[in-house]
Amino acid sequence: MGFLRLKMPPKFQLVALLAFAIVMIFLENQIQNLEESRGKLERAIARHEVREIEQRHIQEGAKEALVKEDDLVVIYNRVPKTASTSFTNIAYDLCNKNHYHVLHINTTKNNPVMSLQDQVRFVKNVTLWKEMKPAFYHGHVSFLDFTKFGVKKKPIYINVIRDPIERLVSYYYFLRFGDDYRPGLRRRKQGDKKTFDDCVAAGGSDCAPEKLWLQIPFFCGHYFECWNIGSKWALEQAKYNLVNEYMLVGVTEELEDFVMMLEAALPRFFKGATELYRTGKKSHLRKTSEKKPPTKESIARLQQSDIWKMENEFYEFALEQFQYIRAHAVREKDGELYLLAQNFIYEKIYPKTT
Assuming Cys at both sites, which of 118, 138, 220, 237 could form a disulfide with 226, CB separation 3.0 to 4.6 Å? Predict the structure, then answer.
């Protein structure tokens, strides 16, 4: 360039510099385009390699995957009066079609706490009863930690909870009037005509704040402190178990969304569950008879208790967790919820396949 400056007039030097700059810009653009094309090519190659790997392992892994799926166990330790019968009916309706077994855990007098020896028996049954796998167990029992018994592969826990006062009101009238599921069955409090409001006004035991203490101990488990009414330790343990031991916990008020997400996460059991819930005759089968909503005064009186505050804190915690999971799983369009498609891929897979 120094030679050009000596031999070329200034005008031609400027033209030469501009031409050089244009060439450099052009080359930089070409390099950038090549890099982008290379990136696209690498991603395309990666996707192709993934498809090749998947195809190569489909036949090899099909039998192994089927064995693993057929070894699944789901436990639904259902809390009373949370729409548990409505949800369980879906599992019963799908078991033949999806080829799994449904087993009801019927404890004596509906006692949610098992003796130590029954805990051992139950863990052995669930773990070793191969003829019943894949299995969906349901019953009114509190959470049981399988790892305490040396089990490496734990079952999948799911559950549904409800606004604590609404749950108590439903249970109060259920004990007196039953439901439309088995209308002829005589209930324990049949003949008692007092409304829930009458009970609250009279300070009755069936509507006392202590009766709210149920969802926390069901999630807390078989420890003594879980059933110590008003225990802060039980509340924190219930929260811990909900997050760490349960795959999904729904709420009665949003049961359809719960069913939809279960179908997406566990199609081995729940394929077809959403459509069945929306169109089937049993989706809202069990309804408590003669139930009257409580007055604001009765609700306010219950809400003064520390027990309600703790149970409600747990319910709100579960609701927020459920809504967080749902926000990352579905989208709403035209008033309908739709599951999101797979949102990840594999790339940069080494060593390269031949």
Answer: 220
Helix (H, G, I), strand (E, B), or coil: what is residue 213? coil
pLDDT tens per residue, range 67-98: 568 899 999 999 999 999 999 999 999 999 99
CATH code (residue 309): 3.40.50.300
Helix residue ranges, H only, 70-163: 84-98, 116-128
Residue in 140, 222, 284, 328 annotated catalytic: 140
| Number of domains forming the structure of the chain | 2
Of these residues, 48, 99, 138, 328, which one is catalytic?
Answer: 138
Q: Is 38 inside a domain boundary?
A: yes
Structure tokens given for 211: 């009766």
Distance, in Å, from the CA atom of 278 to the CA atom of 280, rounded to the nearest integer, reads 6
Check if 138 is active-site.
Answer: yes
Of the residues 61, 83, 112, the one at which a domain ends: 61
pTM of the model: 0.78
